[in-house]
Every structure is written in structure tokens, then in C-alpha cells.
Amino acid sequence: MNTTIRQAIYLVLSALGVGLTWWQNIAWMMDGDGGDKSFGAFWLDAFATHASASITLDVLVVTTVGLVLVFAESRRLGMHPWWPVVYLVLSSGIAVAFMFPLFLFFRERRMAALPSDAPRAT
After folding, report:
1. In terms of pTM, does the model score above 0.85?
2. Beta-carbon contacts of residue 96 (< 8 Å; ≥ 6 apart)
3. Is 118 within the bounds of a domain?
């Protein structure tokens, strides 16, 4: 698969990541149950059942691994030092499902722009 196709796939997945997660976030906020809609209440709901706690913890571990990769790859590829911080903010403020494919898109662009003798992931 060539770089351009991968970039397009990453952008589509990033758009799906923000759209699908925020569809659910907005539905949760608009829920007419009259309950608390604070940040703390969101996390209580995320751990409300064993199933939701399992998925929440799974996402938190994957997020941590993804951010380690973002920081390491950004440094290795010589990306601007503030980009990892931007991705950290995007993952916690919007969605990991948005941030991670977006990072992969920009990583692909950066690798394509590097000279052919520069370090590359395979």
C-alpha cells in the first residue's frame, strides 16, 4: 500500500474517530435523565459496569502506549517538539480515536519528506 493511500485511510479513520465518539458524547450530554453531566459523572458512567470498565481501561492502556509511540516517533523523525503535546491534548480533549490516526497521517507525511537515507519505520 503506498503512502498516499495510507494517508487517506488515516484521515478517514481520524474523521470517523471524532465523529463517532462525539456522537456518543453529545448523546450522553443531551440524555434527558436529569442526571449530573459533569466530567466526574462521565467517568463514573465509564466505570458503571464491568463491561464498560473493561473497555475504558483497555482504551486508557492503548492511549498510554500510543502516546509513548507519539513522543518517541516525533523525536526520532525530527518533528516539531510541541507536536507530541498537541497530540496529548487532542487525545484527552477530543478522542484517542481522532488523535492516533491523525498522528499516523502526519508521521507518513514526515517520513515521505525525509531524505531517502534517513531512518524510517517499515
Report:
1. yes
2. 17, 59, 62, 63, 66
3. no
